[in-house]
Structures are given as C-alpha cells and as structure tokens.
Design brief:
10 helices; alpha/beta; eight-stranded mixed beta sheet; 357 residues
C-alpha cells in the first residue's frame, strides 16, 4: 500500500527558518493547516512546533485543533456559509470576511454564544476572489465596527489564488493606506494588515515589503520551502517535507505502443500514436496509487531516470526503459510532491500517513 511520510525534522527546520525571518521583521504570522486535511497526527506535529495561531478552511479541522490545544488561536480562512456560522463561531476565534450580511449573522451568533469574534476584513486588490472593493471599504467598515461581540482586528487580502495576480509593493501600500484612513476617520485601532500568503514572502526577502504589513498566513512555504516568485527552494529551507512511497505491483517488459481499436480513455483523452515507436519495448512498472489519490503531473520522481506514462483510477504506470536499476515487484518508488499533489494524497483515505525523522 502506498504511504505518505511527513519528515518532522525538516518541517521543524522550515518552521524555525520562517519564525526567525518574521521575528526579524517584527511580523506576526499564523500557519495554514488546510493542506493537512485534518490528519490528527500531522496536526499534532504542527502544534508541537510551538505554533500559536493556525488557519484552516474546514471547521472540522479547527475543531480538532481546539481538541488538541484549546489555547491555539484558530482562524477560518474563507467566507462562511449561513448554515455553518454557529459551528464557525464555536471553533474559530477569528474569521476572514467580506460580506456585510454574514458579519451581522456572526455578530448575532456570537451574542448567543457569549463570545467576542474577531474579524479580518478582506479587501479586493486585483485577483478577484473574495474581498470588499476599495471604493466601498469605508462604508462597509462604518456598518460593522460597532456590531455587538465583533472585534475588527485587521484588513487582509488574497493574491495569486484565482487568476494568478502577484503581490506587489504598490498593492500592499494601498492596503496599508486603507488601514490608516479607517483609523483616522473612525478613531479606531486596526492591529493587523494581513498581506497574504506564501506568495508574498519573496517581497520580504527582497526588502520590498511595505512597513505597514505586519501579519502573514503561511502554508505552502512552510511545507515546501518554496519561493513562489522564482519557483525555487529558499536557501536554508527544505522542499521535501513530504514524500510519497508507492510500491511496484507489476513489472514486465511490454511494447511501447498499445494495440487495437482506439477510443477515448476514461479520462476522455485520445492517445496519440508515435509511429516511430512501433516494434519497440521497455520495462513498465505499475504502482499502487492512481488518479483517485493524485494527479501524476504533481509528482516529482526522486529517480529522474524513468518516465510517468499515465494513470488509471487506482494505478500509476512508469516507463523504466531498460530498467538499469533492476527494479522489481515489491520495490518502493519515491516521489517528492507539488502542493496540489500533496493535497490530493492527504485528502485520500487510501494512502497511509506516517511520521519520519
């Protein structure tokens, strides 16, 4: 059976690297845990690092975090649906919001539960996912800042999550200016300007982050050590916190080309035939993982000498050529993962999850 490992030593090294970086810049930050898909063992590893604030997009995951350590500040990172407001207020200390009606409902529920719920108002800065338009921000704030049991603790934004719009110094300066305008007009203090996610870290690395930005929500760079501007591993960090291990369940020499009458495969693809490959063969390995668990395009083979040919729902097919390393049935093939690959596997109940040192 395929299994996924989380290397606690490398995770800790990445966490300490980020912690030192943010402390040097006097920036608060929280860890986004949604990649872990509520896996309790992995959440415990995260909490054991000394994380004080965890963000997630699933209320059930925030509930698990509170069960493990009720002192963690939990943050719900997407607009909440009406039917889930009661649970969200119960398990999330903070939420990101951009709808006036929803915040009023949250206020009403917070009164019922006898809690003060903290809000980060999300502001649209160009990527066109969630966020209040800047022209409407003052009016929006005016309608919510005195709602009972609601505390506005920040302005935030999301970039690069939908249309690929990258953060820039100018966009983040604008966000900081919104904070200053609101504080002057309403004589209210807004503690945080939450600049975004891992994609904003390169601005800090290159000394291009405006001084007003003082809060981050970080997931991908923690788990993959990646600079998302240059798509490379940040010096001193690890890109292989996660590793997929898949077992060879068949190993045979077969023709390079299929034969017979062709139609679309289950993925709706028509296979293109390279006439030059007729009569040639190679060793093909079948692994015990498939599309149900992960899209092959998100897999990075640690052994770069073979080719991923494709996958069906439950099996991954490799072209090993002449099989120079003499792989055999029962051997384990290792892969590093891109973010979406790790997300698919972590969300699969068919792949075991293991801690490694």
């Amino acid at each position: 059976m395929a299994y996924l490992t989380l290397n606690r030593t490398k995770l800790k090294a990445n966490f300490e690297h980020l912690k030192a970086m943010f402390e040097d810049s006097d920036i608060s930050w929280g860890v986004v845990s949604k990649l872990l898909c509520g896996n309790r063992k992995f959440l415990e590893e995260l909490i054991n690092l000394g994380v004080k604030e965890i963000h997630d997009s699933r209320i059930s995951n925030l509930e698990k975090i509170k069960e493990i350590n009720s002192e963690i500040q939990t943050v719900y990172v997407k607009p909440v649906s009406k039917r889930n407001i009661a649970k969200m207020v119960k398990y999330a200390d903070v939420s990101l919001n951009s709808e006036l009606t929803t915040i009023k409902w949250i206020s009403e529920e917070s009164v019922k539960q006898g809690k003060t719920h903290k809000i980060i108002i999300m502001v649209e800065t160009g990527d066109l996912r969630e966020g209040v338009m800047g022209d409407h921000l003052l009016e929006f704030y005016a309608q919510i800042f005195e709602l009972p049991n609601i505390e506005i603790i920040g302005l935030g934004t999301n970039l690069n999550c939908l249309n690929g719009v990258m953060p820039s110094t100018d966009k983040l300066i604008q966000l900081s200016l919104y904070k200053q305008i609101i504080e002057l007009k309403f004589n209210k203090k807004i503690p945080w300007v939450s600049a975004g996610t891992s994609v904003t870290i390169p601005l800090m690395l290159h000394k291009q982050l405006p001084k007003g930005i003082n809060h981050f929500r970080v997931g991908e760079t923690l788990y993959f050590g990646v600079d998302l501007f240059e798509e490379k591993i940040i010096d001193g960090m690890h890109g292989d916190v996660f590793e997929l291990n898949a077992e060879i369940i068949e190993m045979q020499e077969k023709p390079l080309l299929p034969s017979g009458t062709f139609a679309a495969n289950p993925q709706g693809e028509i296979i293109e035939i390279d006439q030059q490959l007729y009569g040639k063969s190679s060793f093909r390995a079948i692994l015990d993982i498939g599309l149900l668990d992960v899209d092959p395009k998100y897999l990075i083979p640690e052994d770069g000498e073979f080719e991923i040919l494709g996958a069906s729902s439950d099996m991954l097919i490799l072209n090993l050529g002449t099989n120079p390393k003499e792989y055999k049935v029962g051997d384990i093939i290792k892969f590093n993962l891109k973010y979406m690959g790790a997300l698919g596997i972590l969300n699969s109940s068919y792949v075991d999850k293991v801690i490694s040192e």
